[in-house]
């Protein structure tokens, strides 16, 4: 599905990402972990077409999408949930979900929204509540639900645990893990290594914009001291 080949991202004189390779297959959760400013968000933003790469290639389903706009990447089946979520505060929960299904027929969108309410029963209870009044956990659930309404090929999650209480983080990560039952590939950037290890099939450790370790969680946990040293 996704092949990131030696990408680089530069902001002026700052090299945010350099020579990073990532693979995400259908139905797989892959985590990118690292300390603050390790290059996690820049990597996801490059894949989503939000920032331009200064080197390397991004290949989606065998198609080189390097340099494509964010809009075109989204049309190709990639959805991103930014850090802190990405909902419209002035719209209700139901209206936010309808925005997520705006490229679907009315009947298909309604069926997908009702399916989301089954997956996220708390959102069903709050369907007529404005997004701006939701709790942090509810906002994150709504962001994920809205991003998955149209059954994307690839979901990008940037720091899904950011600012959430531990109990809510557990709920959010259980929902993310549930996505593996479909064919959606998930790439999650996360500073909380323990949470990432618990759900990921494979983990990449970034330090100063470079991938310094890679492997399944079971292998990286054998070198936990080394992983911790890269996480600061």
Describe, in plain words, how this protein is organized in 3D.
- This protein has one domain (2-87, 153-231): P-loop containing nucleotide triphosphate hydrolases (Rossmann fold, 3-Layer(aba) Sandwich).
- Helix 3 runs parallel beside helix 6 (136-148) and helix 6 (136-148) runs parallel beside helix 7.
- The mean pLDDT is 93.
- By secondary structure, the protein is an alpha/beta fold.
- The strands form 2 sheets. The protein has a 6-stranded mixed β-sheet with strand order 6-7-8-3-9-10, sandwiched between helices. The chain has a 4-stranded antiparallel β-sheet with strand order 2-1-4-5, covered by helices on one side.
- Helix content is 37%, strand content 26%.
- It starts with a strand and ends with a helix.
Write the layout of secondary structure elements.
Layout (H helix, E strand, L loop, with lengths): L1 E10 L2 E11 L4 E5 L6 H8 L7 E6 L2 E2 L5 H6 L2 E4 L11 H8 L5 H14 L1 H5 L10 H13 L5 E5 L7 H13 L6 E6 L2 H7 L2 E6 L2 E6 L1 H4 L3 H8 L1
Parallel strand pairs: 3-8, 3-9, 6-7, 7-8
Antiparallel strand pairs: 1-2, 1-4, 4-5, 9-10
Helix pairs in contact: 3-6, 6-7
Summary?
The chain has 232 residues and is α/β, with parallel strands linked by helices.
